[in-house]
Amino acid sequence: DGLVVSEKVKCNDIDVKIPESELEAEEKGAEEERPRESDSTILDVSSDYPRDKHISIQRHLADLEKLADLREDEKKPCPLCPEDKFKACYSHKLHRHLQNLHWKVSVEFEGYRMCICHLSCRPVKPNLVGDQTLSKMGAHYHCIICSATIVRRTDMIGHINRHVNKGETESRFITVRAPKSSYKVVKESATDVQVLPNHSTPQKTDSYFNPKMKLNRQLIFCALAVLAGERKPIECLDAFGATGIMGLQWAKHLRSSVKVTINDCNENSVTMIKENCHLNKMKVKLNIREKDNDETVGNGEENSDTIEVTKMDANVVMHLRSFDFIHLDPFGSSVNYLDSAFRNVRNLGIVSVTSTDISSLYAKAQHVALRHYGCNIVRTEYYKELAARTIIAAVTRAAARCNKGIEVLLAVALEHFVLVVVRVLRGPTPADDSAKKVRYLIHCQWCEERVFQKEGNMVEENPYQQLPCDCYGSMPGKTAVLLGPLWSGALFNTGFLRRMLLEAVQYGLDEAQSLLKTLVCEAECTTPKHFSTHSPGDENKQEECGVYIRTPNTSAESYLVHGKRKSEEVLRSTAKRQRPEHSAEHPPFYYNIHRHSIKGMNMPKLNKFLNYLSEAGFRVSRTHFDPMGVRTNAPLAQFKTVLMKYSTPTYVGAQAEGPVHLPGEIHVGEEVPAATVIKVQEAELAQDDKAGVATAVFTQSYPTHCAAD
C-alpha cells in the first residue's frame, strides 16, 4: 500500500543498494535512541516498528533529506514526489521544497510527522474525459497506525484522534490497549479504575464509565451486601464489566463473602479490567479457555482477593454457570438477556436490572417500548413509575418461562436510569402467582385517574365503570386508554430496604442513604417525620421470601441453619399466617400536586398538604419518582377536595392558609360521588370568574401610584 524503508529502496523505478556500513550505523543509532523515545512517545511499538512505517512518516526534516542523499544521481530528486512533478535538483533547492511543500503541512503525532505524499499510492477518481486517470495521482497522507491514505489534513487529524480514543496504537489495525499516558485514573468508593479520555461516550469507547451512575452502583452494592449477610459465600456476576469498577467494589469491600466474576465480550475492556484489578491489588483468575492462550495472572488460587475475568457473551456465561447474584447493565434495553439470567440463577438469588433506554421507557418513543417490552404506554404524570412497572412485567414474564417467580425488592427510576432488583423464587406456584400480577391499566386521559383491570378473562360490557371518575358520562367520545401489560404488585420490600440502609450507613454511602430513607417511607406510605432507623414492629411483620421471616416470638437466625433455607411447608404456613399483613401494601401510583392545582388558588406547602391528607384518614407519603408527587390511597376526587379546601385565593396575598368552604357541605374523608366532583369543578370556574372581577374592582378603586406602592 506504500513505499517501505528497507535494505533495498524502490522509488521512481530505480533500485538503489544501501551500503552495509550505513545500515549498521543506522541500526546502532536507532537502538541507542529507543530507550529515550519510549518515554516521550505514546506509541506502543515493537523494536522493528521504524522499518514498517511509510517513508513520508519521519521525526525530523533531516531524515527526509537523508533519504534523498541515499541516491546515486548527481541531482537529488524528492523522495515524496514523482519525477514529472518535481525534477531532480541540488541540495539547497531540495531543502526548500521539502520544508515548504511537505514538512509545513504535515500532521504531528507525538514526535512523528506524517508528511504529505505525492507518490502513486492513491489514484484520483476519473474525470469526465477519463484520459488522465493513470497519469494524475492525488496528494495524500499515510496513517502511522493503519494503512489508510487520507487526502485532507483535517480528516487526517480526526482519523488519528479516533485511533487514540479506541485504543488502536499499533500498525495494521491491531487493536491493543491504549498507552498508559492516555489513561485517566478515577477513584470511587475507595476503588481506582483507569479510563480512556472519551470514557463518557458509549458509542466511541469500549470501556464506558459514567460518573452519574454512582448512585446506581451504590444501591446495587447495598443489595449485594444484604444478600451476602444471608448466606456465604455467594457467586455474583457483573455481566457487562466495561472498566470493572462495580465488581472491584464488591470484591474490595465484601472480601471473602463474595466470589466475583466480571465479564465482557470486548477484548479491550477485558484487558482494562485486568489492569484495574492489579491497580487495586487484586489477583485475576482466568477461565479455562483463556489459560491456554493467555498468560496466567496471579497464582490462580481462590481467595478473598481473587476476581475471575471472562471474555464471553453475557448470554453464554449465564447459560454455562449458576450464580446467586446477577447484575445486568447493558447499553440500552436489557430484554435480550433476561431469559439467560433466569435460566441458571439459584433459588432465592437476586437479579438486578439497570435499563438506560429512557426515551422508550418514558414514553418519548412509544413504538420502541411496544417493540422491546410488548407494552403500550403513553406520557402520563406518573410516567416514571409506569417505566418501572413495564420493566418488572418483562422480568416477570422471563422468569415465568423458566418456572420461576419473583418478589420485587426495589424499583428506582431517576433521570438517567431505571433500576429493578428482584428476588427469584423457584417453582411453578410462585411463577403463577407472579404472572397473575401482570395486568392492564385503565387510564383516563381527562382527569388522569387510573385503575388496574380486575382479574378474570370475562369481557366486560362497560370497562369505564371500573374508573372512579365519571368523565366518560360527562365528556364526548372515548376518554380512557388501556395501558400495559404492567406489574400491579408492590414495588418495594420494607425489610430489605431497611437492611440496605444499614449497609449504606456501615460503608459510608452518603448518596444512597438519603434515597433509601425516602424509599422506606414510600414503602411504608408514611411521612419522613415518622421515619425511624430501627423499627422492630415493622420488621416482625415483614416476610422476605422465606429467607428472613421475623415474627414477635422468633428471631431471623432461627430459620437459617448453616446456609440452608426453611422447608417449603414451613414457608407456606408462615405465608398463610402473614397473609392479612399484605393489605398494608403501599398504594400504586401517585399524584402530582402541581398537575391538579386549582387555577386562581395558592396551594398549601407540600408537607402541610401531606398532614392534611393524613388527618383526613388516608395513607400518604412522598415519592422518589417525582419531587412534587404524593403517593396516597385517596381517590382523585378526595385528593382534589382536600387540595381545594386548604388552598387560598391568589388575590388575598396576606391571608393565612386555612380551609375554604366547599359547595354542598362536602366533608373530607367521606365518599365523594362523581356528580359532586363535577359540581366542585364548576365551583372552581365560578370562583375564578369572581376572582377576576374582584381584581378588576380593586384596580379601578385605587389610583395608579397607590397600586404601584
UniProtKB/TrEMBL annotation:
Question: Which cell locations does it reside in?
Answer: Nucleus, Nucleolus
Query: Known Pfam families for this protein?
Result: TRM
Query: What's the catalysed reaction?
Result: guanosine(27) in tRNA(Tyr) + 2 S-adenosyl-L-methionine = N(2)-dimethylguanosine(27) in tRNA(Tyr) + 2 S-adenosyl-L-homocysteine + 2 H(+)
Q: Which UniProt keywords apply?
A: Isopeptide bond, Metal-binding, Methyltransferase, Nucleus, Phosphoprotein, RNA-binding, S-adenosyl-L-methionine, Transferase, tRNA processing, tRNA-binding, Ubl conjugation, Zinc, Zinc-finger
Region feature Disordered, mapped onto this chain: 21-46
The record, for PROSITE patterns, names:
SAM_MT_TRM1 (PS51626), ZINC_FINGER_C2H2_1 (PS00028)
Q: Name one GO cellular component term.
A: nucleolus
Source domain of life is Eukaryota
According to the UniProt entry, its GO molecular function terms are: tRNA (guanine) methyltransferase activity; tRNA binding; zinc ion binding
User: Which InterPro entries does the record associate with it?
Assistant: SAM-dependent_MTases_sf (IPR029063), Trm1 (IPR002905), tRNA_met_Trm1_C (IPR042296), Znf_C2H2_type (IPR013087)
- Bias regions of kind Basic and acidic residues — which residues? 21-39
Ranges for domain C2H2-type: 143-163
Respond yes or no to whether keyword Transferase is given for this record: yes
Q: Which GO terms describe its biological process?
A: tRNA N2-guanine methylation
- Family the entry assigns: Belongs to the class I-like SAM-binding methyltransferase superfamily. Trm1 family.
The name of this protein is tRNA (guanine(27)-N(2))-dimethyltransferase
Source species, please? Pycnonotus jocosus (Red-whiskered bulbul)
Lineage of producing organism = Eukaryota, Metazoa, Chordata, Craniata, Vertebrata
Q: Which gene encodes it?
A: Trmt1l
